[in-house]
């Protein structure tokens, strides 16, 4: 179970010279098993919002809880996947995927076997004894996904995890990640600058305004998109319609910020 509540959250950076508002009055919920994406103009605070949800930053006002527990608490079980894989180059792939389990003291024989099973699911069983330098960028991101899932987090945070990959690899990974998260009924938040990716992978899309970031609009993704794979979703008329709607809204926000 993983229900996330972001309640009237604001974040202000204070220096000796001035106070700068990064996010203002952000409120939304993410239900158990739901996948949402966050879009917005450059500098709107997308990654900052994800850092707040992760508990890396604390809000100036408001609260963020996961199943009633503040996300800043060590008891909040949250996984984070970034644009870079951050695999340890001196560790084998087997050691990398079990690292989170070891840190949490959950590296039992069964849990390590589950991590290996996840690696098999992403098609990399034959890479167990390899090192990160021996893998392609797409392979390393699959390993990073397994490392995150191996700790069985209640909430997954994905910060542009496919943006550094070539387009074909990106599309394949979108399908893989969407399939695994649906199978495991995981709750997830994706930050992306790619409108198409947000639509194809999500149940809802949150659009932030330019700084200070506020929720400008929330889009519900049509059922026929949500039920298929991201690659297939891109072929649907409803995908194109929603893409154009979000594009126009985003352009309007960017125009108003200049």
From TrEMBL:
Coiled coil: none annotated. Residues 4-235 form the ABC transporter domain. InterPro entries: AAA+_ATPase, ABC_transporter-like_ATP-bd, ABC_transporter-like_CS, ABC_transporter_ATP-bind, P-loop_NTPase. The keyword Transport applies. Pfam families: ABC_tran (PF00005). Keywords: ATP-binding, Nucleotide-binding, Transport. The keyword Disulfide bond does not apply. One of its GO terms (molecular function) is ATP binding. This is ABC transporter ATP-binding protein. It comes from Alkalihalophilus lindianensis. The lineage of its organism: Bacteria, Bacillati, Bacillota, Bacilli, Bacillales.
